Amino acid sequence: MLPHSSAGGAGPPDPPARGWRSWFDAWVESAYGADGFWRVHSPDAHFRTAAASGPMIAQMLAAVVDRHDEIAHVVDIGAGNGRLLEELAAIRPDLQLLGVDLRKRPNGLAAEVGWAQDLWDVRYGCWTSGEAGAALAQPEPVLIICCEWLDDLPCPVVTRHADGWREVVINDDGMEQAGPRLESEQLAWVDRWWPGGDRAEIGLTRDRAWVELIKMILKRGGCALMIDYGHTAGRRPVAGSLAAYRDGRALDPVPGSTVNLTAHVAVDAVRAAGEEAGATTAFCGLQSEVVPELLQPESHPDPLVDLEQRSHHSALSSQYVWGSHWWLLQC
Ligand SMILES: C[S@@+](CC[C@H](N)C(=O)[O-])C[C@H]1O[C@@H](n2cnc3c(N)ncnc32)[C@H](O)[C@@H]1O
Hints:
With 331 residues, this protein is of the alpha/beta class. It has one domain (38-159, 183-330): 3-Layer(aba) Sandwich (Rossmann fold). It has helices spanning 23-32, 37-40, 56-66, 83-91, 131-136, 184-193, 204-220, 267-276, 287-294, 303-317; strands at 21-22, 73-77, 96-101, 113-117, 120-121, 126-127, 142-147, 157-161, 164-170, 176-181, 199-201, 222-228, 230-231, 243-246, 249-251, 260-262, 265-266, 281-286, 326-330. Strands 4-3-2-7-12-19-18 form a seven-stranded mixed β-sheet. Strands 1, 8, 9, 10 and 11 form a five-stranded antiparallel β-sheet that branches. It has a three-stranded antiparallel β-sheet with strand order 15-14-16. A hairpin with a 4-residue loop joins strand 5 (120-121) and strand 6. Helix 3 crosses helix 4 (83-91) and helix 7 (204-220) packs across helix 8. The longest helix has 17 residues, at 204-220. It starts with 20 loop residues before the first strand and ends with a strand. The structure holds S-adenosylmethionine.
């Protein structure tokens, strides 16, 4: 953890000197600035996600779609290299598939997978280029998925000071201090969802993004599925969950475009936001619970392939690998 020069102290914090900015502003710039992390880096160059690691997440999604006869469209938000949709196309070639990402269409992506290049703007809660909005505004029922997308959406980082919650500000040297008091909406969020702890991430940007997807579902029919790192009330990390990764390694979270900044999703807050927008929760729980239901283990005659399949299957349900991912399915 970085040094906190005045967070948590007894007296009111000094006003931040010039050159300081909120963690939120720093995170947005680090991720989406002209040379921001996601502008120049491909996810698969830095980490192995469950969705991009083999066909089994696609098999589970196919099982979800099989339970909803009305769904013939699947949209993957934050689709990365598009591999998940390619795997799904191989299993269900009848589906209309669309990837949405701020990245341009990946080279060599299978022709049956459509693509919309668009940035979800976390400040204003809207798509930027219009491509995603246009592509999503179809009338047919759809399964909208976001795998490891919400955790990447920047959010304000706050610290509990003697006089209440304050936003954390940071300078270019990575020094932090307590900044301004929270706006009323942020304060209401943290009081409701993160009442304990010393430090937190305000998940409003994630809640808003999710509600936008739910609005599509309410118009078109179908379901929205989040698969992501998360926590729920009573199990929030006391010091927050802001983290940074590069080349598969965890590093100190400091602003900059060389690291992927991320924070776990407050899953219960996202769930409530979806329900308050009109959705019904079909499932909210850990991936380890859904794997046995959606993925039947199959043996393969080639022992090496068989071993690989078994190990991938175990990784998807192991709490030490991807089994601790949250699944939130709202319809
Ligand atoms: C961690 S990767 C996950 C990729 C893929 N879903 C997977 O599970 O392998 C996050 C993806 O979301 C995209 N992304 C992040 N923030 C975004 C935003 N605000 N709007 C659109 N795409 C975004 C990134 O470009 C990246 O491809």
